[in-house]
Amino acid sequence: MCIFYVLLTNSNVLYIHQAIAEGGATGPTFRPEGMTKGFAVLTIAGRKQDGVVDILAQRLCLSTSADRQLNMRLFADASANICLEAMSLADQSSETKKPIQQHQHQQSKTDTSEELFLDRSSHIRDDEEIMKDFHQRLDSLHVILRGTNEVMFATKTDLALPTLKDIVEDESLISLFNTGGGDDTTQEDILKKRNFIGRIGEDKTPVFATTFLPNDATYNGNYQSCYFGNTRSRAPLLNSLHNELALTSTAYVNWQNTHQFCCTCGAPLEYIHGRTCAKCMGSDWPRQDPSIICLVTNPTKTHALLARSPRHKPYLYTCLAGFVEAGETFESAVMREVYEEVGVNVDKDSISYIASQPWPFPRSTMIGMNARSSLDVDMAPISIDPIEIVDAQWFEKETVYQAAKHSDEIGAVLDPKVVEANKEKGWDGKLLVPSKGVLARKLVDHWLEDD
């Protein structure tokens, strides 16, 4: 299937050719028996304003469903989004492109390339000479947090990752580490406030997490127009590498702030690889506590059980979640939490693992599950725990699909200001689900794409 567009951009005619190749259980006429999955390859080529013909955007859209109608709608939405992406690029004048290219070059070690990953380098953390070198390298990169709730962003999808050289030379950055209120912050003061979290890139550049307190400390600097944003609501919008950097840094800073003294003898702890007690030589290490999060559907999988907690706005519903208790299996935790929070029995044999995600608020590992309610009734009655849950409902698939679509358009759905500013995009104000990038949304999408 091929679609041709003629777009008017900045008084110039831009010709765009969009090609959509569909396969599997997705095409409008082709669906042999046994097909259970499908895909669409979306490609947009066009003549740019400089006259060069090139690929403007390309995307692979996968589906695990054999639902032809749902898949065609899924691919149509993806097609519309990639067209908007190409139009946005085309609308940029040559003057606006130049600083963007410069900024991307500055962030080349940490940009959106999926090939980059965080090498945590656990095997060398005890090597004092290597660590000393890492701490003194002027090209080392830094994830900067304000308290434990916010992280410094360069753009909506990229963290600001200043080097040590940037920090010690830029007045707006060095002021962050000046807790005394004067101008006496030294490079040594800055070095003491950092946690090594790993290395990235071909040259294995060391990366550190660092924070300044309190949470409400002001930042009026102008370092590359960077800003602080809430980590919980905005980290899911980051590319995968920067999301991992933000969550890992938050976890380390949270742990360091809450583990100042030895839990055995009470003496102060020193930070080496973990934290070591100089008195009794006991050690403590950063950890994550297991928590389950589960999307429960009815037995026929036409409806999903979503709930709203007291900390969420009236429009935001998500999956049920809770901590795994000592000596408890993940499956048992799913059954217990669902029954305690909404009074619904889960079919134990239906529980399946989907994925996991670190969630350092303060130190959880979310274990993502799907499950079905027991077979005794298709739509089990709900009885909420008013302390844990404000409301819970069975939502049909089409309603959740539309809510997911609007959630993607809005972005940071945990940020009420962002949601309010985006109400004009056609959303009726009734239901949103978590944004892309968080585990709850992965569970919802898994259900939406299931037959």
Features:
451 residues, alpha+beta, Nucleoside Triphosphate Pyrophosphohydrolase, 6-stranded mixed beta sheet, 12 helices, 28% strand
Strand content: 25-35%
Give a count of the beta strands, DSSP E runs of length 2 or more: 19
Query: Helical content, roughly?
Result: 25-40%
Provide the CATH top-level class of the largest domain.
Answer: Alpha Beta
| Low-pLDDT sequence parts | 1-16, 91-114
> What structural category characterises the helix and strand content?
alpha+beta
**Structural shape:** globular
User: What is the CA-based Rg, rounded?
Assistant: 25 Å
Distance between the termini: 24 Å
At the fourth level of CATH, the homologous superfamily of the largest domain is Nucleoside Triphosphate Pyrophosphohydrolase
The CATH architecture of the largest domain can be given as Alpha-Beta Complex
Mean pLDDT: 78
CATH topology of the largest domain: Nucleoside Triphosphate Pyrophosphohydrolase
Number of helices: 12
Summed up, the domain count is 3
Largest sheet: 6 strands, mixed
